[in-house]
Amino acid sequence: MASLRPTVKTVGLPASSSKIGMGGALHEKIAARSIGKIAVAEKVRAAVRTGPSKTEFREYPMPDIAEDSALLKMEVAGICGTDVKLYAHPPSNAPVIMGHENIGTIAKAGREFTRRKGFKEGDLVFVEHYVMCGKCEWCHLGQYRHCENTDWRTNPDGIRYGYTSAEKAPHLWGGFAQYVYLPWNAVVHHVPKGVTPELAGLVTPMANGVEWSLFDGGVGYDSTVLIQGPGQQGLSQTVICKQAGASLIIVTGTSRDTARMKVAKELGADFVIDVQKEDPLARIREITGGRGVDVALDCTAGAGTMPILLGVDALKRKGGTIVVQGEMKEFPNFPLEKVTVKFITIKSARGHSYKACELALQQLASKRFPLEKVTTHTFGLKDVDLAIRSVGGKGVPDVIHASLMPWQ
Ligand SMILES: [Zn+2]
Ligand SMILES: [Zn+2]
Predict the structure, then answer these.
(1) Ligand found nearest the CA of 85
(2) Beta partners for 404?
(3) What percent of the chain has a predicted confidence (pLDDT) above 90?
(4) Is 47 helix (H, G, I), strand (E, B) or coil?
């Protein structure tokens, strides 16, 4: 069988040339002990964000695993645009183990954890970054993303992987570490057989693809779609829209995105537009015979108001839907009149539901699309700074999706 990842490059700087200091403790030999059936280290290495664009490597004690909790041995932490943003501009001064798109193996599961949740030692799983309360209306709907227990913006005690302070015991709240702690209220999914950890690392952008384009945007059979931004998120939306039966998929990007645009076409985009070389609105009108598109999705990063303005203009005459991200605090001269006259529905891109994750995992298991073209690079823990910068377009060139492998 051919390798699933022919284009993967493992990259990184030798430790000596890395700008990141690696504490002497990191080089100590880690003693192993046995918890349950699986041998685990006594100390856990983690990459900790300690300030804007600043990483320190620290060790944390292996937590005690109570009957209702579990321990995840990390395999792959996916890195996305949110990491790029939160690394450069941390929302707080607290030390944080980042990594919110986590795939791993259950190394230790308490008896109650297995009984209540159905996950046992040795299972390969995807852990949502939302840690739920299990009691509220959102939790009962499988919409853990909206639960106050995980809302760091409104609840200072909220728990969310990749966001929660590493000072909060038992510290292991992020995937840029060898192990992650799973309390009873972690939301866990089985990774289907035949899906490698690295491929499973795409589940978050794929789940967002299901949520934003299908559930929010209403994309389905014969839909016409504009996807702005050909990063891992835009490419995942492309696959999901194609699978759902969209009859026209247009992906926009900049001249820097040449390699990504090529992948977009291989994954099902009908047209790609370089917005720096062509007038995107004129081109969309030409492609659609003046009609415009049913749905516009914003998957750009740091592009300001432009994607929303283009989306509003590119939508069909009446009744289109635009899915927006909230990158900007303000939007001067927002074209409210145009939005209402065109009877546009605005939806908010906000992570994923339980159902979207399950559908995304099934999509990955189908192997129907060459998604190994998206999982382009892997990085070891010591290169986390380089990995995040590369996803942001400033380190290693042509990174689409980066998998952080905390044991490398
Ligand atoms: Zn993410
Ligand atoms: Zn809840």
Answers:
(1) 1
(2) 77, 379
(3) 87
(4) strand
